[in-house]
Amino acid sequence: xxxxxxxxxxxxxxxxxxxxxxxxxxxxxxxxxxxxxxxxxxxxxxxxxxxxxxxxxxxxxxxxxxxxxxxxxxxxxxxxxxxxxxxxxxxxxxxxxxxxxxxxxxxxxxxxxxxxxxxxxxxxxxxxxxxxxxxxxxxxxxxxxxxxxxxxxxxxxxxxxxxxxxxxxxxxxxxxxxxxxxxxxxxxxxxxxxxxxxxxxxxxxxxxxxxxxxxxxxxxxxxxxxxxxxxxxxxxxxxxxxxxxxxxxxxxxxxxxxxxxxxxxxxxxxxxxxxxxxxxxxxxxxxxxxxxxxxxxxxxxxxxxxxxxxxxxxxxxxxxxxxxxxxxxxxxxxx
Length: 335
Ligand SMILES: NC(=O)c1ccc[n+]([C@@H]2O[C@H](COP(=O)([O-])OP(=O)(O)OC[C@H]3O[C@@H](n4cnc5c(N)ncnc54)[C@H](OP(=O)(O)O)[C@@H]3O)[C@@H](O)[C@H]2O)c1
Hints:
The protein is α/β, with parallel strands linked by helices and 335 residues long. 29% of the residues lie in helices and 27% in strands. It contains 10 helices and 15 strands. The site of NADP nicotinamide-adenine-dinucleotide phosphate has 28 residues, from α3 and α4.
């Protein structure tokens, strides 16, 4: 038996979900029959992402099986394995790949996972730091790699949703890579924190979240966008010749109303990243780079640990927009 959160959706359409911190036996942790489960992990840390908060509310778009152990990030040690790549004692992590959505995730003491999706936890990071980075840091790294594949390795970059988890890691990673970072935020009172992460300039999100013209003054070589909507449309109109925007999130809106002008007159590109379905070689590459480019001090600035028992109330806070940065979740007692 192991302690973990379990979300059971109501059979009635639109009915409330039952959420409980319960003792889970092996049957309750087993993955659905169509998904691999050749590695059992003793989970030490997970985290609380927006998707996890939606799962706690019983959102059927995230909690795709019922009952479900939520938690899209899993960090821990292999307890047993029949997968050729992993043996008991290996430190491993997982971001997405269905965890906490279509199969049981990290908010429990044990997880039964598919060895083909696991990444070795870089030795430079503790389990707490690996969970603090989690999907947000991993996705920020994917955004940097997407720009590099597009041959954009320096210049002026805009990061939106800067005080969010993804935004914070994007600022730190882009500054470290040599970009000059402008951070856009709705919480100007935290500008000093964004400068500490590596932002040279902090702007109010109102500068972007407005009706924009098809082409505006050219300000940025690249954009890492976590909010979508009008901010992304304005950012596209402000990209320099040959620039690129990476669409990572939709914290403001999933809509994007733009024109073809930035694309056909300035040759800009709109790139996308999806951390959930990333192939294993890309996962491994991203975590290798995180290990060299991200100081644990930065993780401590962005992520705050909470105990497992607080995950449900923290999820409600997150949905209400009252959480800044990121929450990592300790499965055992908080150190
Ligand atoms: N593509 C992927 O694989 C992937 C992976 C992880 C997350 N995501 C998505 O990326 C987004 C950010 O994730 P996160 O973990 O960083 O979330 P988060 O910690 O909740 O941060 C989101 C940030 O967006 C800004 N924001 C919130 N509401 C806004 C609004 N109405 N208008 C403009 N800005 C607003 C806020 O920043 P300021 O207060 O600084 O303005 C907030 O801190 C989410 O949409 C998430 O679903 C995508």
